[in-house]
Amino acid sequence: MTPSARAPRPPKASPKSKKRAPSTPPTPPVEIEEIELAGGGRPHPALGLGLWALGRWTPEDEARTKATIGRAYERGIRWFDSAEVYGNGRSERILGEVLARVPGAAPDAYVVTKVAWDHLRPAQVRAAIIGSLEKLARRSVDLYLIHGPDARVPLAETMPALEAFWKEGKVRAIGVSNFSVEELEEAARHLSEAKIAVNQLRYNLFLRDDVDPVQEYCRSHGILIEAYTPLARGLLHGRYLDGAKVPREVRQFAHRLFEPDILPEMLERGRALRDLANDNHVPLGSIALHWLRKMGAAPLIGASRPQQIDENLAAWAVRPPDRVLDRADRIARGDRA
Ligand SMILES: NC(=O)c1ccc[n+]([C@@H]2O[C@H](COP(=O)([O-])OP(=O)(O)OC[C@H]3O[C@@H](n4cnc5c(N)ncnc54)[C@H](OP(=O)(O)O)[C@@H]3O)[C@@H](O)[C@H]2O)c1
Q1: Is the whole-model pTM more than 0.85?
Q2: Cβ neighbourhood burial of 116 (10 Å; 0-12, 13-18, 19+)
Q3: SS3 call for 172
Q4: What is the pLDDT of residue 296?
């Protein structure tokens, strides 16, 4: 496949944009740079939208989910991250539908999806990718990831199967998620020509445990770290800092951050980060997202409504100076000095 290196283009206007509700007035797209992948394929946008918790995947929720994806595209987001497991396939189907509605959006979008950790036998991988392409209504995806390793299935089986789709052009680049250095090394051993382009990991100012051990390996092998949960489920946008109750689903899916033994300390650090943001006249979200960029990662935000897209892009549009990002790094690690 030939990589199409091009600068981000302003999105085409949606035919429905005239009917948009007054709460979401037209706002110009935000510029998002692209990153060349050592593993080839199209240049990878530096900021993306993840479609896991985007909607709660109920039929009632579908209109808002579509509006959120549509808003993201309209505002310049091109990287959309899905997975066969998200909403049991609804996420891929809805993304395909939204992109099909806007002329030019389907080929313009940078579409990523994943094979589930329990589908890593070659026949299962084939079924998964065929199913995903069908739901997404496309012939290929820009990046295809293994959602997570499965100790019961050797990567010697999975990687050649993935590489075969790469050679067929169904997958323009190959990546993994939640992989350790040992797993990355083992995966690379079973690719003959393709390279691992991406490792998608949980990564934000507060949660670095997954990344610290693999960062050097990824850097030296040109593997881009896609950072999921970059806003710590809204905490790094200021949510929950003033005592709002943390819903159970957030506690469940945000790793240890919201556990009662840790939360008070994290809230204190979060408030110190907010003070830093206020003192420097930048949104807290800017610090969270641009700290990740400074670490070489590409943040993959979540949002469950169009307004959050606008807020997060407003945060993205402001790049705090390095001294502020460095100070934030120290505060997030617990340095009070
Ligand atoms: N590979 C993996 O194993 C893996 C695991 C997890 C996630 N991911 C991917 O990474 C994506 C992002 O992860 P994430 O959803 O955990 O990221 P996140 O950006 O840290 O959290 C997103 C949530 O934060 C809240 N939020 C976002 N913007 C906000 C704002 N401006 N103000 C207040 N609250 C805001 C929303 O919560 P409410 O919806 O409650 O309002 C939103 O659903 C996922 O969608 C998925 O694609 C991958």
Answers
A1: yes
A2: middle
A3: coil
A4: 97
**DSSP H or E run through 35:** strand 34-35
pLDDT attached to residue 247: 87
The CATH code of the domain that includes 63 is 3.20.20.100
Q: Is residue 21 one of the residues assigned to a domain? A: no
Q: Which residues of the chain fall short of a pLDDT of 70?
A: 1-25, 53-57
6 in a structural domain: no
pLDDT at residue 228 in the model: 97
Sorted by sequence, the CB contacts under 8 Å of residue 168 that are 6+ apart come out as: none
Q: What is the number of structural domains in the chain?
A: 1
Quick check: is 7 in a domain? no
- Going from the Cα of 190 to the center of ligand 1, the distance in angstroms, rounded, reads 32
Residues in the chain: 337
Q: Is residue 239 part of a domain?
A: yes
| pLDDT given at position 54 | 61
Ligand 1 neighbours by CB, cut-off 6 Å:
50-53, 81, 147, 177-178, 200, 228-234, 237, 239, 300-304, 308, 311-312
For residue 196, what are the domain limits? Answer: 34-332
